[in-house]
Amino acid sequence: MHEKYNHQEIEKKWQEKWKEQKLYETLDEVKGKKNFYTLVEFPYPSGNLHIGHWYAFAVPDIFARTKRMQGYNVMFPIGFDAFGLPAENAAIKNKVDPKKWTYDNIAFMEKQLQSMGNSFDWSRKVITSDPEYYKWTQWLFLKLYEKGLAYKKKAGVNWCPSCNTVLANEQAVGGKCERCGTEVTQKDLEQWFFKITDYAERLLSDLDNLKWPEEIKTAQKNWIGKSEGTSLKFEIRNSKSETIEVFTTRADTLFGVTYLVVAPEYEKMEKWKEEKIIKNWDEVQNYINETKSKTEIERTTWKKDPSTGSGQVKTGVEIKGIKVVNPANGEEVPVFVADYVLGNYGTGAVMAVPAHDNRDFEFAKKYGLPVKEVIQPLITKEIGEDAFEKDKPVIERRSVVAVIKHWSEDKYLGAIWKKTGWQGFVIGGIEEGEDAKTAGLREITEETGYKNVEFVKTLPGIINARFLQRVKNQNRLAHFEPVLFRLKDGERAGVVEEEKILQDLKWLGPDEFEKFITHADMQIVWQRAMGNYCYTGDGEMVLGCRREGILVSSGEFNGLTTAEAITKITKKFGDKVTKYKLRDWLLSRQRYWGCPIPVVYDPQGKPHKVPGKNLPWLLPEDVKDFEPKGESPLVTSKELKERTEKIFGNGWKPEFDTMDTFVDSSWYFNRYTDPKNDKEFANKEKLKNWMPVKRYSGGDEHTARHVLYARFFHKALFDLGLVNEAEPFVERMNRGLILGPDGQKMSKSKGNVVDPDELVEKVGSDTVKMYLAFIGPYNETGQYPWDLGGVVGIRRFLERVWKIGLKIESHSAEASGDKKLENQLHKTIKKVTEDIENYKFNTAISAMMIFLNELEHTNQVSKGTFDTFLKLLAPFAPHMTEEIWNSPTSLKLRGANESSIHLEKWPKLDETKIKEEKITVVVQINGKVRAQFEAEVGISEKGAKEKALALPDVQKWLVDKKIKKIIFVLNKIVNFVV
RNA sequence: GCUUGAGUGGUGGAAUGGUAUACACGCAACACUUAAAAUGUUGUCCCGAAAGGGUUGUGGGUUCGACUCCCACCUCAAGCACCA
User: Fold this and answer.
1) Rounded to 10 degrees, what is the CA torsion of A221, A224, A229, A235?
2) ipTM of the predicted structure?
């Protein structure tokens, strides 16, 4: 061991040795060891590793190494998700071959990854763009196709008519082409889909059995978006057979329907046109064409509607000539076509209940349609319950209570209400977008006329008040927020007449003011609110609000609660149905660098599978132009066309589209179990050895899509009898994100990318890895701005360990008799072991730091103690610990030959060693800490009480006090309540 | 707007309902040094001379005791975005 901790030398040396010794190559089975499969999402070979990759791979390596030391046969594989758009973009930009670009990147990144010193098993590497891999992607696709889970249909893509090209959603920002600014339109293409919707229910219900963090489950649930509702049929007047079917989750509002809306794509539109029952067809057609020219993005971008002052711009036209009948009450209502209704969800038609749905309300307001209330909220009892009236809607308001100080004197502006004679402060409603401060400033100018006001501070005491506002006869729930203002001078404009009639202003002296600031003043504010005047609101808030409550104006259903009414109305007028937001998975890409879809078409255009013996169905290499043109660049391949005709016959054509890269990554974890198999995608026995993945770490950007797709794929394979379990991942952990030093997401264009190579060169792989683990809890998806400053803390820690290592060498091997140190050591074993299991590496490291501090302050440290500590540290700093472990003196002291620390057994916790004999008992008086004393573990309540009462610091506080109660918490607290 | 997550020192963060601010960074003083760096020691939430008091986004509540549980509100981040 050298005096100096030379990380460069050490890390290089051990990485080479580990490779030679094949230390991390995993056998399929090892006698006496259980298999343990831990996985990280494989990277896209973008060119070089950034610090985010380190965070993604180096930190979970701590877990993998620990599991290995704990006696598991651990598989921790790595590969490359190598198909994808960037390769083509590079090809277009730099005229390089996408394949070469990709494989060069892989070679470079492999080298970078090696410098991490991770315990990856490189022998199991998979690359999704290798024909040996995508052969099986194709084979699996065909399996799904055979089962009817892959199908073809027309679907829209974003299309730029000027560039003559297909755009990805992110290239069509704001409905305009990213490159030329032209309006993006929709173009229909025949495309391949996976029927993931068939699995919606299972994908949802199987979540219940997974031990995943709740937020990940919720994210998936939301993505699947199950909603149970009612299908209702509205008959078209004078037509017995024709109906418009709608889907609603709020059947209870059926009596409040005042019109119907259908989507512009509504399927029956054509039929109506042919039957010529639409009287204003030209107008309707115009509207439909208008929406068609808009993109999905444009249609769904949130814009505030200036004509209604709220919500999103809603447009539509009435379909004249069609009226429908409400099945519940026989009322006749009009039908509109509007693009706020989506063609691809539900039935493409909705019943509109403007009184209880915001969107319907906005639309109704804009087009002057009637609003019919059928639900009234239930009121819960609170203050002011007597004033509250049952069965009346509640209006929620935030109001500011403006306490206004005089510009020079110690007096405050009060208001006297002429009607009631009541005195209070200026009160005003807080409008949307305002805070109490700005609302207060505005109200003061309006109500008092004073011009120069400044904000001082927010006063404590928000009052929540429920009351009946008598003038308007409305139930209100108000939050009053008192704020202190100061007038700068007496300059004053006139006050509007309206305000003058209502109130007089009066200066209040300090005494009077005091009353308002204490708790009692809340009563006054309260009375003020109860008084017969309120400035705010026009009652519209209640309309358009979705509420639960009691049915009114609903015939026989009056008085039922929302839940009851939904059941009863559904039973009587409709059918119970379930809908999902989840759409089928569009897997076709009009791109070159992807897995070819193994399908060919006969001269009649009928699709056929490419037979197994012709797999892999190779991606042709004679494509030169990768520019997206609305069809796949593969159409320019002579080789592909010739190959197809040669194998299948004249007039046969290949499928030119390639697959979404999410297909490649939906099954790769299976391939790791048997990466070189050329007979099967993976042998079933080998799959059984390893699957399901015990812990899968990845970014939270993948929870909704990649993880869901992989689950779908695995379920489909399970149904086909190809895999052994229906769920691929036992545990899923999402990590956080490393931001640039500027707190922004790292990107080349922002120039805030942290280069890990440089850093590793400077401080070493162990330091970088440990720093990333130390930055915060790994199982929470926080965001961490990269801060180089913190790295030195870890580097110092490792250097101190190194130094102790040197010191130990000069010590004898005799056991230390230090009980306290042993106790600390075992506490550290416990903490570190538990924290690694829970991915809380930050606190594990902090525990080791605390122990190191202890070690440094102990004169005689035994080799055994230090070795145990070194083993705990080994997964975190694999190179350095290995070096110390194998230093000549260390070997001599151990009387051993060179062997890896990473093959050592994880330190075992000895529970008897962490038992404390003495503990500190805290003495509280009324919950406040006043003293503490040492006592033996398990001290009785009586003993503790006596000891506590003997303390002068306790007696001091108990003078002239009577002890009412004593709370005793074993080994922790004695609390005297007086 | 909806969903989810989060608000604790100058910073990253720590705390099964039981001594809030562990650990680390930064900063300050001191030691070593001709000096600096490195290293080490000590200190470092706020008010206060002290006794003591206050403090986990805000306001309430439950409790002997609340960062932790409940209610309301505010702010930030991410995802979804007219899903009936």
Assistant:
1) 160
2) 0.95
